[in-house]
Amino acid sequence: MPYKFKCADIGMNCGFTVKGASTDELMPKIAQHAKDAHKIEEINEDLKKKVQGAIKKTMF
Ligand SMILES: [Zn+2]
After folding, report:
1. What is the 3-class SS of 18-50, one letter each residue?
2. How far is CA 30 from each of CA 13, 14, 46, rounded to the nearest angstrom?
3. DSSP designation for 7
4. How far apart are the C-alpha atoms of 46 and 52, rounded to whole Å?
5. CA 60 – ligand 1 centroid, Å
6. pTM for the whole structure
7. Which of 4, 34, 44, 50 could cross-link with 40 by S-S, CB 3.0 to 4.6 Å?
8. 59 C-alpha vs ligand 1 centroid, how far in Å?
9. Cα of 17 to ligand 1 centre, how many Å?
10. What is the domain partition of the chain in residue ranges?
11. pLDDT by residue for the chain (60 residues), tens digit each?
């Protein structure tokens, strides 16, 4: 699970974190979370770039 995303890293006051094997695996999970927790129905290009920039590679 080398990729990790933290909602707080894109400026959200939120403790959500998610891990996955690839960015592609993370994106749908982040989209689902954005919908459920932040009422963001669709991730637009700007937000997508922000999210992708915040995804970090981790060894854990
Ligand atoms: Zn969040």
Report:
1. EEECCHHHHHHHHHHHHHHHHCCCCCCHHHHHH
2. 15, 13, 14
3. G
4. 10
5. 21
6. 0.90
7. 34
8. 22
9. 8
10. 3-57
11. 699 999 999 999 999 999 999 999 999 999 999 999 999 999 999 999 999 999 999 876
